[in-house]
């Protein structure tokens, strides 16, 4: 925890909270333009950060072990999601359950919100393999060319989104240079002007377009500028959330489905903001509560691969 980059945890917190907000179906349907805008940059930015922090310098056994302990919670939750999608009336429902369907969703075409973990594992394992196979030709340009080719093949096979892989690779490329993340994404409040200009045209709200790439960069630049002026009382809780995004990625979908009945409870608020705030709190606190219970029951080692998943919240840090 001592070696974490505060700005990265802050960015991860913002993006994971946005992910949760727009996984609330009611909010996504009520504010479709805002959803399109957020979807243009929030997961691309997450993938860039993931590529940047991916540590392939670990000894092979340790790296594969770390990937394995991403797979375990992914497999449990993806399996649960597939089963529930066959029972509940969700948008991504499945007609009938079978072993072949389950294997397809688990290893090739994940269903629902766990696609990010699937992408992270595929991108990370491919990057690690390319880096090791490159041997004495292990130069940044050579590795990136080979990596892009591998991602293109996986995309052609239909098991990986090429644009998502390229965002991950952008983070890898940045890490392999001598440029600091916080220097490359230069903090600037002026970024708000081109953000407004680009966001004013719906055609630009596409992460696969140059405008989408620009929006991703500009939003990160603007957020880093804001970070400098946040009080510690805001920075620290956001940093704590950002350092535990894995927990929220895994458990928040449980609560985004569970809070649906609250739409009727807060129907008097036409804006949906009360529902948003209450639901977001439930999703975050509920996810942390599950992780806390797993720590207390000493089953985290079987799910996360570590004795404790939650770090202590030291407000004096």
Provide a concise account of the structure shown.
With 317 residues, this protein is an all-alpha fold. Helices cover 69% and strands 0% of the residues.
Q: If you had to describe this structure to a student in words, what would you say it looks like?
A:
- By secondary structure, this protein is mainly alpha-helical.
- It contains 16 helices and no strands.
- It has helices at residues 6-23, 25-30, 32-53, 60-85, 99-108, 115-134, 140-156, 162-175, 181-184, 192-199, 210-227, 232-242, 245-258, 262-265, 273-296, 300-303.
- The chain is globular, with a radius of gyration of 20 Å.
- The relative contact order is 0.15.
Largest sheet: number of strands, sense, barrel closure = none
Q: What portion of the residues fall into strands of 2 or more residues?
A: under 5%
User: Distance between the terminal alpha carbons, to the nearest Å?
Assistant: 11 Å
Tell me the series of helices and strands, N- to C-terminal.
HHHHHHHHHHHHHHHH
Return the structural class.
mainly alpha
Low-confidence parts, pLDDT < 50 over ≥5 residues?
none
Helical residues, percent: 55-70%
Q: What is the overall silhouette?
A: globular
Question: Residue-averaged pLDDT, rounded?
Answer: 92
């Amino acid at each position: 925890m001592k070696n974490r980059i505060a700005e990265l945890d802050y960015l991860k917190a913002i993006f994971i909270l946005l992910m949760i907000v727009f996984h609330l179906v009611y909010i996504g349907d009520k504010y479709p333009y805002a959803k399109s805008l957020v979807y243009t940059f929030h997961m691309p930015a997450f993938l860039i950060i993931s590529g940047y922090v991916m540590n392939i310098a670990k000894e092979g056994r340790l790296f594969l072990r770390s990937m394995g302990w991403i797979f375990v919670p992914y497999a449990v939750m993806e399996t649960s999601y597939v089963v529930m999608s066959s029972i509940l009336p969700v948008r991504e429902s499945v007609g009938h359950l079978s072993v072949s369907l389950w294997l397809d969703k688990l290893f090739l075409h994940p269903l629902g919100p766990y696609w990010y973990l699937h992408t992270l594992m595929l991108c990370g394992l491919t990057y690690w393999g390319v880096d090791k196979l490159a041997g004495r030709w292990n130069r940044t340009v050579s590795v990136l060319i080979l990596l892009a080719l591998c991602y293109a093949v996986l995309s052609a096979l239909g098991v990986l989104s090429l644009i998502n892989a390229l965002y991950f690779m952008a983070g890898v490329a940045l890490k392999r240079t001598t440029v600091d993340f916080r220097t490359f994404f230069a903090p600037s409040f002026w970024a708000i002007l081109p953000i407004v200009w680009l966001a004013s045209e719906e055609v630009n709200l596409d992460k696969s377009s140059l405008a989408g790439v620009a929006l991703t960069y500009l939003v990160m630049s603007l957020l880093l500028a804001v970070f400098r002026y946040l009080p510690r009382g805001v920075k620290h809780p956001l940093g704590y959330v950002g350092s535990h995004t894995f927990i929220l990625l895994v458990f928040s979908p449980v609560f985004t489905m569970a809070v649906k009945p609250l739409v009727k409870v807060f129907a008097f608020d036409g804006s949906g903001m009360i529902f948003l705030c209450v639901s977001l709190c439930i999703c975050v606190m509920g996810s942390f509560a599950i992780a806390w219970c797993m720590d207390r029951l000493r089953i985290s080692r079987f799910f996360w691969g570590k004795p404790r998943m939650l770090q202590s919240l030291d407000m004096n840090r």
